[in-house]
Design a protein that fits this description.
Belongs to the DnaJ family. The chain is α+β, with helices and mostly antiparallel strands and about 375 residues long. It is built from 9 helices and 15 strands. It is elongated.
Length: about 375
């Protein structure tokens, strides 16, 4: 864990940052390092780092644990950085070394299947308005021939004669500290507690088969990049009658050529000519669904924002939609005819402005200001 960067440093926020500040920093960095936009070799790694930091700091409980323990999992390890995985609890540890009365796991009990993850890339507008589609995933399912037992039809697995169905065997060792009993998975049955002598020809005795499964997915309107959709029971099949795991679909949203998204709001830039900005105009603005008219007041300055209420993204967990924000940018023409130049010189003269050819340069004036002239 020592090579991991501080999550607050990753997002570029202080430890006292609020929820909105953390979300804003995440969205900015996610757009910057998204693999669809950034083709740098380390972009994907940085994107994952940013996503991991946000997942922790956006969850109040996970953030509290992180603030107290950092990257060390308080549920793992003892003392100086020992990080063994004791998923079975302390009862299994004492049972392993001393043969104590810790609870034993039944090797023949139903076992839940593993969860699966599927990364789905969608278009910008598909994320905004939602989408229905079919996906095909490879997964492990219970064998239909033997119904998961692993035994040939008409036969049954037999109880292991070594461990008597417990799935564990004891190894006794005499040490300077006394007689110690160590429990481990049975070497005869591999911890299953049963032996399959006549194996199923379909699954070769494993009780499972690999299949391609087609699943219908409904992506809700307003879903954002990095969101996860959980589909209950669509993961790997369980063992010995156990339930299947879940399928987690991680949404990746492609960038758009014109629109940018921040939360439920949409942002875009629209160019204006000098004449439009100075005299005012009515221009046509594309939105997510249609084109609308926008009135530009006379004297509008470059960088001014206009808002189209309700023209943003449908709220995923609420009613209504966000807004669309339009930033106008005045475009300076790069090629002028002599007539146009003369007209601009005349305009400058009427406005009381000096001709740019005789005006002192901006940088010269800056130098004078620093010198105190």
């Amino acid at each position: 864990m020592a090579d991991k960067r501080d999550y607050y440093e990753v997002l570029g926020v202080s430890k006292g940052a609020g929820e909105d500040e953390i979300k804003k920093a995440y969205r900015k960095l996610a757009r910057q390092y998204h693999p669809d936009v950034n083709k740098a070799a380390d972009a994907e790694a940085k994107f994952k780092e940013v996503k991991e930091a946000y997942d922790v700091l956006s969850d109040s409980q996970a953030r509290a644990r992180y603030d107290q323990y950092g990257h060390i999992d308080p549920n793992q390890g003892m003392g100086g950085g020992f990080s063994g995985d004791f998923s079975g609890g302390f009862g299994d540890i004492f049972d392993m070394f001393f043969g104590g009365g810790g609870g034993r796991r039944d090797p023949n009990a139903p076992q839940r299947g593993n969860d699966l993850q599927y990364n789905m890339t969608v278009e910008f507008k598909e994320a905004v308005f939602g989408k229905e589609t079919d996906i095909t995933i490879p997964r492990t399912e219970s064998c239909d021939t033997c119904h998961g037992s692993g035994a040939k039809p008409g036969t049954h697995p037999e109880t292991c004669s070594v461990c008597r169905g417990t799935g564990q065997e004891e190894v006794v060792q005499n040490t300077p500290f006394g007689r110690m009993v160590n429990r481990r998975a049975c070497s005869n049955c591999g911890g299953a507690g049963k032996i399959v002598k006549d194996k199923c020809s379909t699954c070769s005795g494993t009780g499972k088969v690999r299949k391609q499964r087609t699943i219908h997915v409904r992506i809700p309107a307003g879903v954002d990049d990095g969101a996860q959709l959980r589909m209950n029971g669509e993961g790997e099949g369980g063992m010995r009658g156990g339930p299947a795991g879940d399928l987690y679909i991680v949404i990746r949203v492609k960038s758009h050529d014109f629109f940018e998204r921040e939360g439920d709001d949409i942002y875009c830039e629209v160019p204006l000519t000098f004449a439009q900005a100075a005299l005012g105009d009515e221009i046509e603005i594309p939105t997510l669904t249609e084109k609308v008219k926008l009135k530009i007041p006379a004297g509008t300055q470059t960088g001014t924002y206009f808002r189209l209420k309700g023209k943003g993204v449908p709220r995923l967990r609420g009613i209504g939609q966000g807004d669309q924000h339009i930033k106008v940018v005045i475009v300076t023409p790069s090629k002028l005819s002599e007539e146009q130049k003369n007209l601009l010189r005349e305009f400058a003269s009427l406005s009381g402005e000096q001709n740019h050819e005789n005006e002192q340069s901006f940088f010269d004036r800056m130098k004078r200001a620093f010198r105190g002239d």
